Amino acid sequence: SAVISQKPSRDICQRGTSLTIQCQVDSQVTMMFWYRQQPGQSLTLIATANQGSEATYESGFVIDKFPISRPNLTFSTLTVSNMSPEDSSIYLCSLAQGDYNEQFFGPGTRLTVL
Amino acid sequence: GQNIDQPTEMTATEGAIVQINCTYQTSGFNGLFWYQQHAGEAPTFLSYNVLDGLEEKGRFSSFLSRSKGYSYLLLKELQMKDSASYLCAVSDSNYQLIWGAGTKLIIKP
């Protein structure tokens, strides 16, 4: 399976600022996904990022707040803009691969907004 | 709407067997996944069921009944390292994953 890395692994940020999270994969993949997981809760899909096209956002998430880039088949970024304490969460990138198109996840970015 | 239900928390004893249930109501069905997530780590894939019946993989087995909208994950010979959250996820008619809230499994010696 693909190896997925994320940077930063964690960060503490002030409200009103923005943070860009990077996701790097060691092989080419068509679709990448960005999730949020708040403490004690399950995964919520933010958006699907395809190379060469605009990301597709889920209900409740907008491009102005969570702009995504997908410049090539091995890399994507998610920016959390104008942060508030409610954005404190773990952010995960993933891809679908394998016999069952199962999802593989990066190690996550733990974000705390003060 | 789409919904997946799992127990919030379960406790079991080392060496025993535990069954974690998952019921779902989704628009379409293209398979059900189970993932394991240790505290502070990302989820890892455990199993996939798309047809009715039992799939066995070592100490872990997963069962599916599509007519009942029901699945379970069976863990045998429990080890302390099995303490984790177990997430049930269903692929709907658009192949989008709908995630359950997860079951936190606590293993006691």
Major beta-sheet overview of chain B: 6 strands, mixed
> DSSP helix count of chain B?
0
Going by helix content, strand content and strand pairing, the class of chain B is: mainly beta
Q: What low-confidence regions of chain A span 5 or more consecutive residues with pLDDT below 50?
A: none
Contiguous runs where pLDDT drops below 50 for at least 5 residues of chain B = none
Kindly summarize this structure in a few lines.
Chain A has 114 residues and is mainly β. Chain A has strands at 4-7, 10-13, 19-25, 31-37, 43-50, 56-57, 68-72, 75-80, 89-97, 102-105, 109-113.
What features would you describe in this structure?
- The complex is a heterodimer of chains A (114) and B (109).
- Chain A is mostly beta strands and 114 residues long.
- Chain A has strands at 4-7, 10-13, 19-25, 31-37, 43-50, 56-57, 68-72, 75-80, 89-97, 102-105, 109-113.
- With 109 residues, chain B is an all-beta fold.
- Chain B contains no helices and eleven strands.
- In chain B, the strands form two sheets. In chain B, strands 2, 4, 5, 9, 10 and 11 form a six-stranded mixed beta sheet that branches. In chain B, strands 1-3-8-7-6 form a five-stranded antiparallel beta sheet, with no helix packed on it.
- The model of chain B has no long low-confidence stretch (mean pLDDT 95).
- The interface between A and B is medium-sized, with 17 and 18 residues.
